[in-house]
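Notebook entry, structure prediction.
Reason for the run: the old model in the group folder had no record of what sequence produced it. Starting over properly, with the input documented here first.
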Amino acid sequence: MPEISRFFGIVIKMFFDDHNPPHFHAEYGGDLALIDIRTLAVFSGRLPPRVTGLVIAEGEGHSHYDI
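New structure, fully documented this time:
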């Protein structure tokens, strides 16, 4: 799976032609969450609250990933 970003120990990855909704994977330590690209809502898994906030802020800064 291609890694598209890495910051503060958080790894953001995205599959080409993955299942709907369009999303990216955020990994931190042993935690994993799937985040909808359009709404930036976590729809599967979980991350610590601080990490979730950082991931959402990063997603807002990369709106060009929108599909």
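Summary: The chain has a mean pLDDT of 89.
The old model has been moved to the deprecated folder.
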